[in-house]
Structure formats: structure tokens, C-alpha cells
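sorry for the late reply, my laptop died twice this morning and i had to redo everyting from scratch. anyway the thing you sent over, i finally got around to it. pasting the sequence first so we're on the same page, its 118 residues, then the predicted structure underneath. double check i copied it right bc i was rushing
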Amino acid sequence: QVQLVESGGGLVQSGGSLRLACVVSGLTASNTAIQWHRQAAGKEREWVASIYKSDGSTHGSTSYADSVQGRFTISRDNAKNTVYLQMSNLKPEDTAVYYCRSSLGNYWGQGTQVTVSS
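ok and here's the structure:
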């Protein structure tokens, strides 16, 4: 059974930082692309960042939405089968429920709330 479980959300002031974690079980995270998405109240879910499968010589390339480029960093700990999203210089418009997703099988986590106060 495949599960993705997010954690690390919370309330933070504008300019602050949070690190989200997505613990993957039932599949090997390095063998697939893992994305972070977010959904603000009343808005469509949007893609935030991706980390691609390892090819043996690299840890996997990454890509980011323009709105978070330079502020967020996605990474993966293969030993822990966990993908992280380090978020810095947070803004009120980053407030949303954050979800991780595996490309393989299209599995989603339950989400974690991030609230940034101004």
C-alpha cells in the first residue's frame, strides 16, 4: 500500500521559514518524480516544485514555479524515503494546504496547512 504523509506545516510570520516533509511508503521515492502542490482557499490547486527520479549519478533534477523560485528548495533523502520542501522568505500569498504527489501511480498525501501572517 502506497502512502504519502506530509508534515511540518504551521503558522509563521511573513519573512519566516518552514520545512515540509513528505514521507513515502510503499514505493521508492528516488524511482519516480515527486511534486509539491498547494491549494489556497477558494483557488485551484497549483504546482509548486518537482524533484525528478535519480539516474544513478545525480540526486535528481528539480524545477519550481516562478512564484517560489529562489525562495523554496525541494530535496530528497533517499535513506529516509522522504522529500522535503524548504520554504524561506514566506509571504502571505504562500498560505495554502500543501500536498505532495508521486508521479508513479498518481498518489497524493492528505496535505499540511501553511499559514503566513502579515
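The chain has a mean pLDDT of 95.
thats about all i looked at so far, will dig more tmrw
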